[in-house]
Design goal:
The protein has no helices and 7 strands. The protein is mainly β and about 90 residues long. Strands 4-3-6-7 form a 4-stranded antiparallel β-sheet, with no helix packed on it.
């Protein structure tokens, strides 16, 4: 199994996004959402994950629980020993 960040679904999103990834071995995994200015808005996962396929759901809110505005965002996955991957997310009303 290869290290990969899957396509975000649905994209564009109006309610919630599902973000999936795979990792070949157990390792620390961190999945964050950023705005176009590079500010981290939300951490969706930050723990040791086992080898395999994983799924996180973003409810389009920031860490304070406030809904983000329509626009462009980025999901960045970092897995220890594997590197990182980024996907673009579009939020609509």
């Amino acid at each position: 199994m290869a290290f990969a960040l899957a396509r975000v679904s649905p994209n564009p999103a109006a309610g919630a996004d599902r973000i999936g990834w795979s990792q070949p071995r157990a390792a620390e995994a961190r999945l964050d959402v950023f705005d176009v200015g590079g500010r981290r808005l939300r951490t969706l996962d930050d723990r040791t994950e086992g080898a395999g396929v994983h799924l996180a759901t973003w409810d389009l809110t920031d860490d304070r629980g406030s809904r983000v505005r329509p626009g462009l965002y980025f999901a960045r996955l970092t897995v220890a020993g594997e590197g990182d991957r980024t996907r673009r997310l579009t939020v609509i009303r």
